[in-house]
Amino acid sequence: MSIQLRWESSTGKLNYDEQISKIHNALMECKRNTVMEVGLFIEAKCPKRDGDMIASFLENLNTSNVQSGVLTLTLGCDEPYAKYVFKMTAANVKHYNTLYEHSGAKAYGKHGPVILDDPSALGNFMEKLIEYTKERLLLNWDRAKYLYLSGRKNQKEVFTVDSSEESEGGEVYYGPGF
Fold first, then answer.
1. What is the pTM of this model?
2. How crowded is residue 126: how many other Cβ atoms within 10 Å of its Cβ?
3. In sequence order, what DSSP letters do the residues of 130-158 get, joined into one string?
4. Cβ neighbours of residue 76 closer than 8 Å, sequence gap 6 or more
5. CA–CA distance, 166 with 175 (Å, rounded to integer)
């Protein structure tokens, strides 16, 4: 799934390098805010268990970058069991201070028994994460655009959304295309 932004401007006030610099600064601001907000969402709503999924999500999210006028947010988890957890409903992933799974089996982590306490975990987590990321990305882009590009006239935004990729991971692209 990808979101791309193409920026078209017919103003002659700024030369090409100045335009690229302003757009790059706006994208960096957008990236900084979006990574922070999505990171907080992951820490609060991701099924916790022993914390490996959260650590993997945050590690991947922190590899996001701005290069050649394109902001790339990397969303994904490297844990082998993540694809199963992403399909679970909220009833299967929420736990309230217990030593037992919903099946009745004792809960174990890497280092032995664990207490499961994640009442705010969301079911179908990856779908909700992608939806939240899109929402925050567009909002943060509007804020960054206002801060860095508000003096420009005759500008157009052209959005393309491609949701053909699986919802189990992938990258979200957002940036100007020249």
1. 0.71
2. 23
3. HHHHHHHHHHHHHHHHHHHHTT--SEEEE
4. 56, 57, 60, 168, 169, 170
5. 22
Which residues are paired to 159 by β-bridges?
A: 5
> Strand, coil or helix: what is 62?
coil
Segment 84-136, tens digit of pLDDT: 888 888 777 767 767 767 666 777 677 777 777 677 778 788 899 999 999 99
Residues 41 and 54: their CA atoms lie apart, in Å, by: 10
The backbone torsions φ and ψ at residue 18, rounded to the nearest 5 degrees and listed phi first, read -65, -40
- Residue reference for tokens 């957002």: 174
Q: Which residue has the tokens 């079911």?
A: 123
**CA-based end-to-end distance of the chain:** 21
Domain boundaries, the chain: 11-153
Whole-number Å distance between alpha carbons of 122 and 145: 32
Tally of CB atoms within 10 A around 29: 18
What distance in Å separates the CA atoms of residue 85 and residue 92, rounded to the nearest whole number?
Answer: 9
